[in-house]
Amino acid sequence: MALANIMFKQHPRWLYTWTSADNNTRNQIDYILIAQRWKTSLMNCRTYPGAESIADHQLLAVIVKVRLAKRQRQHSIPPLNLEKLKEEKAVHFEANRFMPLEAAYDEVTPEDLWKHTKTVLLEVDRETIGSVKSQQKKKWISDNTYAILS
Fold first, then answer.
1. Residue 17: how many CA atoms within 13 Å on its side-chain side?
2. What is the pTM of this model?
3. What torsion, rounded to 10 degrees, do the Cα atoms 108, 112, 115, 117 define?
């Protein structure tokens, strides 16, 4: 955790958060805690002494500028048609596509070996059993319900 109040150099009148009843004693007793990973998002932290409040505390505010990164969507592989595995068609495979891997086994890194194996398996699966088109989600509210609400 990080204290937002002490991260910025401010004039003393913008630092104190509590004033005594006689207006002579002023202290900084209120703090804003923020997680360390969000510390770089803070722009400023200060009190506003002129703000109307019933208590003897000053309004303490922090300015935060959040920078959100775009999430990259992963392209999903369409699901295989597993119903066709029950047919005889799935038992028959054409040529052995793993032959190039056996020839260059010593020169291939494990990552490259896995990538090539994965692509070969997916190609053979697509050719023999195909893929299933994704189904549309059902509406959560039906047309009859819309008619009743209208």
1. 12
2. 0.41
3. 0
